Amino acid sequence: MAPRVTFMGLGPMGLAMSENLLRYGDIEKPLVLYNRTREKAEAHSSRLGNCQVADSVANAVLFSDIIWLCLQDQKAIEETFQKILSTDIRGKLFVDSSTTSPEMVDSIAQRVSDGGGHFVAVPVMGGPPLAISRSLTCIASGDSKSVDTIRPYLEGVVGSNIVDLSGENPGAALLLKLMGNFLIMATIETVAEAHAFAETCGIGTKNMDKLMAAVFPRPPHALYNHQMLSGECFSGKPLVEVSKALLLTGRVMELAQKHGASVKIYEIAREHLKFVKDHEGPDADITAIYGAVRVESGLPFRPSRE
Ligand SMILES: NC(=O)c1ccc[n+]([C@@H]2O[C@H](COP(=O)([O-])OP(=O)(O)OC[C@H]3O[C@@H](n4cnc5c(N)ncnc54)[C@H](OP(=O)(O)O)[C@@H]3O)[C@@H](O)[C@H]2O)c1
């Protein structure tokens, strides 16, 4: 029999993920929705149909076998689990897609296990547009049986692929998610420098684009190339706002410092994010790092359109 599922946390990510769970996941209907601000859950439920809004955290847990959370931050998760852990959680599986700290997630997973429940961490890579198109990368860790239980809801339902860490502590997924942020920021920084370099040398960004596509047949930088060369990094809908990226990059820097890792490219990318925030405001896109690199290279922040 399909499990009963609750989705808690209806920010931009949760809205898309819960809709895809309802539409594409093999779950018992209705999908239970819970959000701290109840009106958002009511509005989402009316739009989707086949949902039921829970009026408290306790009821959100009571009704379901699987409780999926996607909350803002560590504080939100700690406060919500305080309420969850005062209910009967025996046999229930908690899936957490919030980006929080590895240590806190391991501590909550232990408390859930002490209460007779199960816990899987599934932080995701990709913002709301990728969540809507079911293209998130889902990093899953926790005991193998629990990861197997939710596997059918990851690839093809809320996301397009899984980084499978089953058998490892839930915190491992959070650690890898922070490393994923390192990869993204370092790639954006490299792409921005390559294009500004090409422009200052006079060979131009179009030729750099050709070179990149030839050298890297499945280019990791294609998305950022498009953002920068189309100008969408300056005026389009942001992939991720610099204000959000600065919070996350601060945590990655703390992690690197704690372990003595040398992350110089990342430090530079973070300085460029700060530049973009000062120059363009908190809602500018992270790929506007291109503008910061251009200014340092003696070019105007925005390229003139050809
Ligand atoms: N957005 C992205 O690009 C992106 C990409 C990958 C991963 N993530 C991660 O996904 C998670 C959700 O992000 P998001 O962008 O969808 O939305 P968000 O604005 O970060 O989170 C919104 C949700 O958290 C709830 N919330 C906040 N504080 C709370 C508290 N103290 N107690 C209970 N609930 C609380 C909000 O409830 P109310 O509606 O009542 O405020 C809302 O449901 C975050 O951990 C984020 O880091 C985001």
TrEMBL record:
<keyword id="KW-0560">Oxidoreductase</keyword>
<comment type="similarity">
    <text>Belongs to the HIBADH-related family. NP60 subfamily.</text>
</comment>
<feature type="domain" description="6-phosphogluconate dehydrogenase NADP-binding">
    <location>
        <begin position="5"/>
        <end position="157"/>
    </location>
</feature>
<dbReference type="InterPro" id="IPR013328">
    <property type="entry name" value="6PGD_dom2"/>
</dbReference>
<dbReference type="InterPro" id="IPR006115">
    <property type="entry name" value="6PGDH_NADP-bd"/>
</dbReference>
<dbReference type="InterPro" id="IPR051265">
    <property type="entry name" value="HIBADH-related_NP60_sf"/>
</dbReference>
<dbReference type="InterPro" id="IPR008927">
    <property type="entry name" value="6-PGluconate_DH-like_C_sf"/>
</dbReference>
<dbReference type="InterPro" id="IPR015815">
    <property type="entry name" value="HIBADH-related"/>
</dbReference>
<dbReference type="InterPro" id="IPR036291">
    <property type="entry name" value="NAD(P)-bd_dom_sf"/>
</dbReference>
<dbReference type="Pfam" id="PF03446">
    <property type="entry name" value="NAD_binding_2"/>
</dbReference>
<dbReference type="InterPro" id="IPR002204">
    <property type="entry name" value="3-OH-isobutyrate_DH-rel_CS"/>
</dbReference>
<protein>
    <submittedName>
        <fullName>6-phosphogluconate dehydrogenase-like protein</fullName>
    </submittedName>
</protein>
